[in-house]
Amino acid sequence: MVCLELFVTFFKIGLFTIGGGYAMLPLIQEEVQSNGWMTAQELVNFIAVSESTPGPFAVNVSTYVGAELAGLPGALCATLGVVLPSFLIILLVARCYAAFRSSAIVSGVMGGLRPAVIGMIAAAVVSVGATVFLPDGVQAVSAVSLGCSLAIFGGMTVLTFKKVHPIVIILLSALLGIAAGYLLPV
Amino acid sequence: MRADLAKARLLFWTFFKIGAFTFGGGYAMIPLIQREVAERRHWMEDSDILDIVAIAESTPGPIAINSATFVGYQVCGTFGAFCATLGVVLPSFLVIYAISFVLRQFSHLLVVQYAFNGIRAGVLALLLKALLSMYRQSPKGAVAYAVMAGAFVLTAFLDVDAVAVILLCAAVGLLTSLRGKRRAA
After folding, report:
1. What is the complex's ipTM, to 2 decimals?
2. Predicted model pTM
């Protein structure tokens, strides 16, 4: 039963994900967290795992959630679910892709979807920001841990815009996190 | 038939390699596809690669899966599409499946928790970068800004279902382009 649920959920994620990179993040947040499959923190941790391993985020997260919930069958069902919509739709489109490319309807719909995805990723950035800076809510925030997070975020933002590789960013932030954890009174 | 089988096997291994060496997925894979598919195997022309990107972007699902299915189909039909897609998914599936055993066990260690405290702040920086580079490539204009702001507010503050936001914005895009066309005609 859980396998069917995994398949259906990740099929929906695959079907409604437009564009590359983190375009699917808001939808994944919604589905994975509302089902209680991952906490907000675990999902952000997993983005780092996905950046450091091969393959697209959507495939990685579906395999991981599937494996955690129901072992190998779960991983297979979830991954099949996320891949199947792309596969079927591309098979249809590939037969008539000249018509698809010049279609006014497709370009109209994409004209709405491109900016929509940007707005939705911005929303995901805000919610990840809340997870990073206020993990236990506004009341329970500690000045030391907030300061550490802000410092690491600031430093890493500068480095990402200098085109430092994401894996280097993740390693550096891990080292800084460990140093802060052991050296600072929390 | 035998030639097709050989081609399908080659498709599988080519995309297995592409899948195994693309960290983070998505657009990082386009130059690799170009090198393997156009320059090395001559399955497609360089100019076809732009078509792949355009199609992969405007159909649902991850760019990596869409491009693999598309190239596989062009090279040797539905079976080719299947082999290429399986090839591109398998490396991440195997790596993540193996990691899933380790991750939970180590996540209780204090040092791992500290590391992830730092990593989450780093991930936020990566997401911000990804957001800004998508923004730079996106079409600009009054409607686009309105849709961006609308999608942001609906998702971040009003907790509207992501699927509903996507359908709504697709409808807005379609209506705007139809109205523009009518005015031009």
Report:
1. 0.83
2. 0.83
